[in-house]
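Our platform keeps sequence and structure together, in a single record for each protein. Nothing more is needed to write down the fold, since each code stands for a local backbone conformation. An entry from our holdings is shown next, in its original layout:
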Amino acid sequence: MEQKIKTSNILVIDDDLGVRESLKIILKDKYCVSVASNIDEAFDCLKNILPEVIFLDIKMPRANGLDFLKVMRSTNSNIPIIMITAFPSTQTTITALRNGAFDYIIKPFQPSEILAVAEKALHHNIELSKKDRLVYNLRMAVQENFFSTTEALLHAIDAKDSYTAGHSKRVSLLFAFVAGDLGMSKSQIEVLQYGAFLHDIGKIGVGDIVLAKPGNLTEAEFSLMKRHSEIGYKIIEPINFLKECLPMVRHHHEWYNGRGYPDCLQGTKIPFEASILSIVDAYDALTTDRHYHKKYSHQEAYRIIQQGISTQFVPSLTEKVLSIIDKYRETCMKDEQEEDS
């Protein structure tokens, strides 16, 4: 005899043993049914199973069903919850539905009614999952298209200024390594790494003559160059998933003594992530060829950055970041040696 495969989990929460057993008997042929006699037992069940539907009694001793419903919705749970009540009232029904209940049934109930509402809730859950996946895929597509477009813009900047080719990508990788070593979470780094990658996107609005000029810029030319951080800020400001990156894009040229740009922020007013980026950005700029200087050695770049402590760079942070850059270089050199061998 072929055994039916039960694919959906249903949790029944009711202090009445008779109700629990009745619902279990009605549902067990089609679904995997777990039961709990109170809210504490229900939370214990949720540690071990993820139900697709919950049947929940409104009135129970101590914490009642509405309390449980509110907790579930506060955690952004989308599990359909069907309220069970023996004494229906308009106010109770409205309160339950306003707090996120999917539906409600009245005791005594018929088996056909229970099966119908369970099927309806499961169908709703499946449709909701499909919509969530669709929204997620659309969001990923938007991000992917955005960053493809952005990378094309950065290539355009690189084409205007060949000496900075690859700068944004190197800074992004180094920033992520430093941020991880400083204890930032992976999710935070993932977002901020985009900011590091896009930190010079505003140079698309700076003239070629200024970007490619050998030697020192005039005061007027430097004023044009300084606009790139504000232009970059305006480019990414409308993009919701990059909101966390805005401070670092705008403020990565602020100086600890307040003589940076664009807002002349000083000391602790400079966002932490922007302070990290300013050191990483300076290190990469110093150790690569530019129109206005030949690349410095690792040791020379360190010396120049250390000389800028308390004027350009944050004192308490700079030495930490430099030591992490040391670690990064060692990791990269080891990887290169392994590839060669």
User: Anything to note?
Assistant: The longest strand covers residues 9-13. The mean pLDDT is 85.
